Amino acid sequence: MGKLALAAKITHVPSMYLSELPGPHHGCREAAIEGHREIGRRCRVLGVDTIVVFDVHWLVNAGYHVNCAPRFQGVYTSNELPHFIKNMPYDYPGNTGLGQAIAEVATGMGVGTRAHWDTTLDLEYGTLVPMRYMNADRHFKVVSVAGWCDWHKLEDSRRFGEAVRRAIEERYDGTVAVFASGSLSHRFNDNGSPEESIHQISDEFFRQVDLRVVELWQRGDWKTFVKMLPEYAVRCCGEGDMHDTAMLLGALGWDAYDKPVEIVTPYFASSGTGQINAVFPV
Asked: Cβ neighbours of residue 168 under 8 Å, at least 6 residues apart?
């Protein structure tokens, strides 16, 4: 029935919003912003009607959760970094039917999942930042999935990602893109770090492991990557324990996936963390 047309691992660094504003950081994230715009353009060409975001800024402590309200509207200030993102307006259509289908299929596969549509749940900036640049005209419907899964197993997130693919293909009449919205290494700079550290990695070890990971991705060596993913997530402080990445690869076939990624925005450091925009061919 439905089709998964595009998949990607994307950055959502709050300095992208800061990059828009007058001041010392104006334009500092133009490459990342343009990467989002390019991915949005590709979604349009492919006929995508809905974007599903695995958002590592939505923390949950039990179960899997899908925010599929019919509309998302508000003004957002980050409680984590209020000096980076403040008073950012947003307004996007949701897709209740797809969110419900994902929850039903995942639960049927033994991964307990709840769809929230009659809800006051807001979106987090792992969804809001990319939608700002990919979906400024509200062309796409949006579904957000909790990707900061503090007490979950990566294997369950893999199966959840598989369920997303099945829900799209078996229960949905439309075309969908899925994004893992999160960093590679995610060890922030220490408090009080200088202003210029916005462009630095917190530890060279993290950069070197990130670069090795990107090399594996570009080679399509997913068998090696999924073997190292649990330890990589721990040793390099993976954002949200990298459940977003497990979900993405679950949707693509896990270690049976064999396609090399396309780098849209090359690897860069941001406030200590490692970031990238990369398209995973479906």
From this structure: 2, 3, 4, 98, 176
Domain ranges of the chain: 3-280
257, 236, 235: which is closest to 246 by C-alpha? 257
Q: What is the pTM of this model?
A: 0.97
Q: Are 154 and 233 in contact (CB under 8 A)?
A: yes
Q: What is the distance between the alpha carbons of residues 54 and 229, in angstroms, rounded to a whole number?
A: 17
Q: Which CATH architecture has domain 3-280?
A: 3-Layer(aba) Sandwich (3.40)
The count of C-alpha atoms lying within 13 angstroms of the C-alpha of 18, restricted to the half-sphere facing its C-beta, is: 18
Question: What's the pLDDT tens digit per position in 175-188?
Answer: 999 999 999 999 99
What are the CA-CA distances from residue 35 to residues 12, 30, 172, 239, 259 (Å)?
A: 11, 8, 28, 20, 20
Model pLDDT for residues 232-278, shown as the tens digit of each residue = 999 999 999 999 999 999 999 999 999 999 999 999 999 999 999 99
Sign of the CA dihedral running 237, 127, 221, 166: positive
